[in-house]
Each structure stands twice: as structure tokens, then as C-alpha cells.
Amino acid sequence: MSGTVRPGDPDRETRETADPAPAEPEGGDPACWLERVCADCGAFQDTAEFTRCARCGAPRE
Predict the structure, then answer these.
(1) Is the separation of the CB atoms in 47 and 36 below 8 Å?
(2) Which residues lie in Basic and acidic residues bias regions (predicted)?
């Protein structure tokens, strides 16, 4: 029975529990876009400095 892996075999346990390679760091968008969302209608605005919603015209709160 050469080549047979038995439960409790240290070689098998090492292969199955080895940590995977570290993931690439993720970049991109900021974590929160809430400052760009209209509180009344939920529309996403082009800039965080909006004074009135482009969709419904509500003032920024």
C-alpha cells in the first residue's frame, strides 16, 4: 500500500492546512460614499460638495 494516504498522516495534514499565498492588496474606491448620496431620493451625486440634488432638487442636509 505504498502511496496511500491515511487519516492522521502528517504529510497530508500539512498540505491541507497550509496557508494560501497572501492576496494582492486591494485599492480603488473609498470605503464610504455616503456624503455623495441625496438623503431624500438616494441619488448619487457627482461631487461631495453638492448643495442641491441633481435629480430631485432637495437641499443637502
Answers:
(1) yes
(2) 8-18
Provide the whole-model pTM: 0.49
Asked if the model's pLDDT at residue 12 lies above 70, the reply is no
Q: Tell me what the mean pLDDT of segment 1-5 comes to.
A: 58
19 within some domain: no
- Mean pLDDT over the full length of the chain: 78
In terms of residue numbers, what domain contains 57? 33-61
Q: Report yes or no on 12 lying in a domain.
A: no
Note whether residue 6 is domain-resident: no
Give CA separation, 40 vs 20, 28, 31, 51, 52, in Å: 45, 27, 22, 13, 11
